[in-house]
Amino acid sequence: MKHERLNGRQLDRQAILLLAVQGLLGIANALSGTFLPIYLWKASQSLALIGWFNLSQFAVSGLTFWLAGKWVKEHNKMNSLRLGVALSGVFYFVVLLLGKSAVTYAVPLGMFNGLSLGLFWVAFNVVYFEITEPGNRDRFNGWAGLLGSGAGIIAPWVSGLLITASKGERGYSIIFTISAIIFAIAAVLSFWLKRRESSGHYEWFHGIRQLRQPGNPWRQAVPALMAQGVREGVFMFLVGLLVYMATSNEQKLGNFSLITSLVALVSFWIIGKLLTPPRRNRAMMVGAFAITLVIVPLFMPLRYETLLWFGIGTALFIPLYIIPMTSTVFDLIGSNEQSAKQREEFIVLREAALTVGRILGISAYLVVLPFVDQAPQTVAWLMLAVGAFPIISWWLMRRFLGTGERQAM
Predict the structure, then answer these.
(1) How many CB atoms lie within 10 A of CB 208?
(2) What ranges do the domains of the chain cover?
(3) CB 3.0-4.6 Å disulfide test: which of 62, 212, 252, 298 passes with 247?
(4) Tens digit of pLDDT for each residue in 296-346?
(5) Within 10 Å of residue 181's Cβ, how many Cβ atoms?
(6) What whole-number distance in Å separates Cα of residue 221 and Cα of residue 97?
(7) Under CATH, which number does the domain 10-192+208-397 receive?
(8) pLDDT tens digits, one per residue of 122-156
C-alpha cells in the first residue's frame, strides 16, 4: 500500500480518502455556502433573518453531535458520515425547489442544515482522531486547511461569475444544483472508507463530569473553545455579507474569496509544513493577536478595498491560530489510553463548547442589529469585540501548547 510521508509519519489511503471527501464538501460549500446568506438577504432584506438562520443551524448541529455520539461510538460511524453528506446535498436541493420562498422557512432550513453538518462532523472528527497522532496532526490540519483554501479559490469565483452572467436567480439555481451533485459524489466516494471498529458504551454526561473535576485540563480547554466559537459564529457569514453590501456584486464577492483563499492556501501550506508541537505556543499567540489587529481598518468607511485588506490579513495569519488550537485539543483527547477510549465523548464536548460560543456570538450580533442604522460603526465594534476572542483562546490554552510529541522539523 502506498503512503504519503508527513514528517516521518504516514497517512494511509484511508486518511487521504477522508481528506478527499472533506475537500469535496469544501468545494460544494464554497460554491453555494458563500452565497447562501446573500441569497437570503436579497430575498428578505433582513440582516436579522440571516442571524436566526445561523443560530438555528448552530443549535441543531450541536444537539446532533450530542445525540449522534451514541451512534458513532456504539454502531457504524461511517453511516453517520455518509448520511451527513447526503443530507447536505438534500438541503441545497430543497433550497433550489423553494426558490425565493426559502426565506419563509429560514429557521427550519437552518435546523435541517445543522442536522446534516452535525452528523458529518461528529463522525469525521472521530475518524480524524483515529488516523492521526501528535506528530502528524499539525501537518494533517495544514493539508485540510490547504484543501479548504483551494476550494475557496476557484469555487466562489465561478459562482460569482455564473450568478452575474445569469442575472441572479438562474445563476443561484445553477450553483445550488452543482453543489447538490458534488455532495452526491462525496457520498458515493465515502463508501470506499472502511468501516471502523466500534467499542465501548456512550456516556451521555461524560463532558459534565470532566468539568466538575478540579485540575482537569478541559476546564480550560472548554472556555477556550467557546472563545473560538464566538468569533466563528459571526465571521462565518458576516464577512461575505459585508462584501456584497459594499459592492452589490456577486462577482466582487467571488473575487474577494479567490484572493483571500489563495493567500490562505499558501499560508496553510507553509505553516502546516513548518509547525511542530514545540512551536505551537508562539505561533498561536502571534496568530491570535494578528487576526484581531487586522479588524481595525474596518473602522474606516466600508469599501471593498478595506474589506479586501482585512480578508488578506486574516487569511495570512489564521493558520497560526487555528492549526495549534485544533491539534492541541485533539492531543488532549489522546493524552492517555482511557481518554482515547472516550474520544467520542470528548469530541462531543469539544463541539458543545464551540456551539455555545457560536450561539453567544450570534446572540451578540442580533442584539446590536437595532443600533446599526443609528451608528454605522456598530458593526465594526461588534467585529472587533468578537474578533478579539481568539486571544482568550490562546491565553487559556497556552499551558497545553507544545505538549504534544516533539520532533525535528
Answers:
(1) 11
(2) 10-192+208-397
(3) 252
(4) 988 888 899 999 999 999 999 999 999 899 889 988 888 877 787 888 888
(5) 14
(6) 42
(7) 1.20.1250.20
(8) 888 888 777 777 666 666 777 777 787 778 788 88
